[in-house]
């Protein structure tokens, strides 16, 4: 449905990758959907700082909702990426054991993978570990292969899902921070920083704020602990050192420090895992840098000889449960989608599918629509695929794609123009960077930020003038 109804059928709170996927899925049915977020862009919270691995779910806890949805999500997102142009590289992964205890744990991890329905893991010797990743530091005792692990663009995924939801008729309400809720006559009014939004059903996909929002609906089911993960991004010259994901044997805190190629052609080292109390603290720290450099010196000493392009940190919503919390409150027409860890990127479309079934089972009428638009075709940000500056035919049709603005990342004027004219244009330079890679390279915008900022300002002024 389109338009701005007085009462939406469903309000989805949180325009990260999970909330956007839910809004997209529900908008494929004859219901009106609003997608709210406190920030000024989609995918601007946890989603933008994801490690961007498309997981097979080989190491999830068997029998959990998470394991089932990650496995299903891998299939769904792989297909959706093909349809929309979200870049994916099937690099494969190698789980490396550095101690006898870790080596002894590998057969159990293989058994866990098979219990999760993934049967392609194979144990390998230390000799094979070094054949696959010659730059690893000394001391590896063996490994376990995971050939279907991949890297993906988390930025493009969130943007594609939200763009798709908009095309299907959902209403995107950015800058709408929910401060309180009020239920009456079968509806809930969300009192936000930009006015009230009323809906018959509310879906809480608020990530780091999900427990706070859950409390507004009278629940005390869980507590979110912001877990900061700091990462180092190495220059593209480092990419030959790591052509696949190098994983540690996982611990109770997560997957540990990994070495991972990125879809943009870099190599990433991290993340740390530090529990905080401040849900906004995405700053990097000296201790985090020292920790990662020490880990890197052990895992891959040659990597530390390469230039660091950037360091950044993201916050994950760690909770005091060992599974996703997707629980309805039919009396209040409210659904919690909480505790979605970093696997939420992979599981996003499956979570949306599951949410739809839970809502339907709780009384929401969901009649599939027959008039759905084609999914959006997203611009390619992947280094392994043809970019506009390399496309002679495209440049011949439009010379703006031959004029490079950001030389570090080879971003052209045409790409920036397209992003500024897109259905979901960026509200900031950071938003433009997530759509194009501009300013994300070695100089971190030193040479291109002024011109890029001028283009952004001109586009914003034009939109305001036409409003």
TrEMBL record:
Pfam families in UniProt: DAO, Fer2_BFD
InterPro entries recorded: BFD-like_2Fe2S-bd_dom, BFD-like_2Fe2S-bd_dom_sf, FAD-dep_OxRdtase, FAD/NAD-bd_sf, G3P_Oxidase/Oxidoreductase
Domain BFD-like [2Fe-2S]-binding: 404-457
Domain FAD dependent oxidoreductase: 9-355
Top-rank taxon, per record: Bacteria
Name this protein carries in UniProt: NAD(P)/FAD-dependent oxidoreductase
Classification of source organism: Bacteria, Bacillati, Actinomycetota, Actinomycetes, Kitasatosporales
């Amino acid at each position: 449905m389109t338009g701005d109804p007085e009462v939406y059928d469903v309000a989805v709170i949180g325009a990260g990758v999970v909330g956007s996927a839910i809004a997209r899925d529900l908008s494929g049915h004859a219901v009106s959907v609003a997608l709210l977020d406190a920030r000024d862009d989609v995918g601007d919270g946890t989603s933008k700082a994801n490690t961007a691995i498309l997981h097979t779910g080989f190491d999830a806890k068997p029998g959990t909702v998470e394991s089932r949805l990650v496995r299903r999500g891998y299939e769904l997102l792989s297909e959706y990426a093909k349809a929309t142009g979200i870049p994916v590289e099937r690099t494969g992964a190698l789980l490396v054991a550095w101690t006898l205890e870790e080596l002894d744990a590998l057969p159990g991890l293989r058994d866990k993978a098979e219990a999760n329905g993934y049967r392609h893991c194979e144990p390998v010797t230390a000799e094979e570990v070094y054949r696959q990743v010659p730059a690893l530091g000394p001391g590896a005792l063996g490994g376990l292969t995971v050939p279907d692990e991949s890297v993906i663009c988390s930025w493009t995924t969130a943007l594609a899902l939200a763009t798709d939801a908009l095309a299907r008729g959902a209403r995107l309400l950015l800058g709408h921070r929910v401060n309180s809720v009020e239920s009456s006559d079968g509806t809930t009014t969300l009192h936000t920083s930009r006015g009230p939004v009323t809906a018959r059903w509310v879906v809480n996909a608020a990530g780091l704020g999900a427990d706070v929002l859950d409390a507004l609906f009278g629940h005390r089911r869980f507590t979110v602990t912001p877990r900061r993960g700091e990462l180092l991004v190495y220059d593209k010259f480092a990419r030959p050192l790591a052509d696949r994901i190098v994983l540690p044997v996982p611990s109770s805190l997560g997957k540990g420090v990994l070495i991972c190629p990125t879809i943009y052609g870099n190599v990433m080292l991290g993340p740390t895992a530090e529990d905080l109390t401040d849900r906004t603290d995405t700053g990097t720290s000296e201790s985090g840098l020292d920790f990662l450099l020490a880990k890197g010196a052990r895992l891959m000493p040659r990597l530390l000889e390469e230039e660091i392009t950037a360091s950044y940190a993201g916050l994950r919503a760690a909770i005091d449960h060992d599974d996703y919390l997707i629980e309805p409150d039919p009396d209040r027409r409210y659904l919690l989608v909480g505790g979605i860890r970093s696997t939420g990127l992979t599981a996003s479309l499956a979570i949306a599918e599951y949410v739809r079934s839970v809502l339907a089972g709780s009384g929401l009428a969901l009649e599939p629509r027959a008039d759905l638009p084609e999914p959006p075709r997203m611009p390619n940000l992947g280094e392994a695929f043809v970019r506009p500056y390399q496309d002679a035919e495209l440049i011949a049709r439009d010379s703006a794609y031959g004029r490079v603005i950001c030389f570090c990342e080879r971003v052209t004027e045409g790409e920036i123009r397209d992003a500024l004219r897109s259905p979901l244009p960026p509200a900031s330079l950071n938003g433009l960077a997530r759509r194009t890679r501009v300013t994300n390279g070695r100089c971190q915008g030193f040479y291109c930020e002024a011109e890029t900022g001028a283009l952004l300002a001109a586009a914003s002024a034009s939109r305001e003038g036409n409003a």
